[in-house]
Write a structure and sequence with these properties.
The protein is α/β, with parallel strands linked by helices. Helix content is 34%, strand content 17%. It is built from 19 helices and 18 strands. It has helices at 16-19, 32-35, 48-55, 65-68, 76-84, 88-96, 102-108, 115-118, 130-144, 167-178, 195-198, 207-219, 236-240, 273-283, 308-319, 340-348, 417-420, 451-454, 459-483; strands at residues 5-7, 10-12, 159-163, 182-186, 223-225, 247-250, 256-257, 270-272, 300-304, 324-328, 352-354, 357-364, 370-383, 389-393, 399-401, 405-408, 412-413, 446-448. Helix 15 links the parallel strand 9 and strand 10. Helix 14 (273-283) packs across helix 15. The radius of gyration is 23 Å and the shape is globular. The chain starts with a strand and ends with a helix. It binds flavin-adenine dinucleotide and iron/sulfur cluster (SF4).
Length: 484
């Protein structure tokens, strides 16, 4: 196999025709048997050798289509070229030009449907493992040259409020602080991070990695106001009035779960994935009674849904000791929106997948506890508005699965509090805030993005909105200053 060789500190990258012969590198992973009972991170990432080999697979295309597949436009070819040359600090700089959360994105982005889906190499061979390389560079940077230990100019420009501290809010705050604005992040919970903190479990995204990334905000002089619920502690109008903020970016996410509306949903033991994961992530419920919050730990559990949230919930249930952890999804495997890696990991951990199966009714026992889930089989019809084939019930196919808990992960909508307390803020279906191409809302100098304006999407799309909003806020406030 052709491998890159280092000579006198320089790297001799293989010739292009040899590069395609190098197999895609894989990270070390915790063994499925062992990891079922721990919340330790599953993927160990690439090491120095495998990262160099993987980077040397890149064809350095004249037209780097991979960047087009990245919603924030990371210069993929550029940073990989630095990795091949052993210039890891430069590689990190290159990524950070477009991405304030590279260690997060390297772990949770659905690369297979974004940058890696576009990769030229992927047309005939396995695409370059762009996400793993991004993670490698970000982790190297944290260990050797932390971005937050560098001096940043702390200019005190106009004041901007960022409401919500998920990936959209973090990105917008970082971009604006770099441009010299005085940014304050308002967060309802006690800690920053949004879904990255309370939704995605430790075994996929360790909290110390998130905390590390957040230190960039401190280095940039961003002020944190936690335990601050905008709409209650202060309204948006108060922030823009007596508090003196000249622009606001709303990024309060979509934290209100949707339910199926089937009979039996009020039984004890039915809960949303959101609540289940929050209890474990934020309140360490898996360590009850050492920590105050209990969590349902059933023998058999059915999780309903096919996205990342459903996968996280079912894998968490397995780690809490469920002997049978079932994922009930009404379409087939091909339509699952979850990341391919999560599906593979769940399978390895013994999660059972019930495809083309839809819940009809939750059954209870005499004490009002969940005792089973009645389901029916589905078949796939024509594509619906989302482009996915629509599930259609198969008559007479009902069956009952014995479970003691049902966790629903079928989608979410925004929390309505900011919308309800902000006159003139236009909203759409499920209270999603309406925005234009620059993330501007119907209210002057109020911008919005992330799940609040999308109704549930991905980390990187939320980050793209945060970047766009920061650029639009800068334009709006610069124009206002010039007009004075
Ligand atoms: P959020 O991350 O939801 O952050 C919003 C923040 O605003 C929260 O901290 C909230 O407390 C705060 N807030 C709400 N209301 C107020 C208020 N009134 N005042 C002050 N603060 C407020 N995407 C991926 O790309 N890959 C994945 O692997 C992935 N896995 C996921 C797993 C789970 C369990 C879930 C739920 C989602 C997952 N997603 C994943 C989706 C992704 O996490 C979201 O799309 C993304 O976090 C949205 O970012 P955001 O900044 O818009 O909002
Ligand atoms: Fe490298 Fe693939 Fe991007 Fe080409 S498309 S530059 S091979 S990562």
């Amino acid at each position: 196999m052709a491998r890159p060789a280092r000579e006198n500190g320089r790297v001799n990258a293989p010739r292009p025709r040899d590069r395609v012969k190098i197999p895609r590198q894989h990270p070390a992973e915790a063994h499925p048997e062992g990891r079922r009972s721990t919340f330790d991170e599953v993927s160990g990432g690439l090491d120095e050798r495998t990262a160099l080999v993987e980077a040397s697979r890149c064809l350095e295309c004249r037209d780097p289509v991979c960047t087009r597949g990245c919603p924030v436009g990371v210069d993929v070819r550029g940073f990989i070229r630095h990795v091949v040359r052993g210039e890891l600090a430069a590689a990190a700089e290159r990524i950070r030009e477009a991405n304030a959360l590279p260690a997060v994105c390297g772990r949770v982005c659905p690369q297979e449907s974004q940058c890696e889906a576009e990769c030229t190499l992927g047309r005939r061979f396995a695409p370059v493992a762009i996400g793993l390389l991004e993670r490698y560079v970000a982790d190297w940077e944290a260990a050797h040259r932390p971005v937050w230990e560098r001096p940043f100019a702390r200019t005190r420009g106009p004041r901007v409020a960022v409401v919500g501290s998920g990936p959209a809010g973090i990105t917008c705050a970082a971009e604006l602080a770099r441009k010299g604005y005085a940014v304050t992040v308002f967060e309802a919970l006690h800690a920053l991070g949004g879904v990255l903190r309370y939704g995605i479990p430790e075994f996929r995204l360790p909290k110390h990695v998130l905390d590390r990334e957040l230190r960039l905000l401190d280095a940039l002089g961003v002020e944190r106001r936690t335990n601050f619920l905008v709409g209650r502690t202060a309204t948006l109008d108060e922030l823009m009035g007596e508090w003196g903020f000249q622009a606001v970016f709303l990024a309060t996410g979509a934290g209100t779960p949707l339910f199926l509306g089937i009979p039996g949903e009020t039984l004890a033991g039915v809960l949303s994935a959101n609540e289940f994961l929050t209890r474990v992530n934020l309140m360490a419920a898996h360590r009850f009674p050492e920590h105050d919050t209990p969590v349902v730990a059933p023998r058999a559990v059915a999780v309903i849904g096919g996205g990342n949230t459903a996968l996280d919930a079912v894998r968490t249930a397995r780690r809490l000791g469920a002997e049978r952890a079932l994922l009930v999804y009404r379409r087939s495997r091909a339509e699952m929106p979850a990341r391919a890696e999560e599906v593979r990991h769940a399978e390895e951990e013994g999660v059972e997948f019930l495809f083309l199966t839809s819940p009809v009714r939750v059954l209870g026992d005499a004490e009002g506890m969940v005792a089973g889930l009645e389901c029916q089989e589905m078949t796939l019809g024509d594509p619906d508005r989302s482009g996915r084939r629509q599930p259609i019930p198969v008559p007479g196919s009902g069956r009952v699965i014995e479970v003691q808990a049902v966790i629903e992960a079928i989608g979410q909508k925004p929390n309505p509090i900011v919308q309800a307390t902000t006159p003139g803020l236009l909203t759409g279906r499920h209270g999603v805030v309406a925005v234009d191409a620059e993330q501007a809302t119907s209210r002057p100098r109020v911008f919005a993005g992330g799940d609040l304006s999308r109704g549930g999407a991905t980390v990187i799309l939320a980050m793209r909105d945060g970047r766009r909003a920061a650029a639009a806020i800068d334009r709006a406030l610069s124009a206002a200053a010039a007009a004075e």
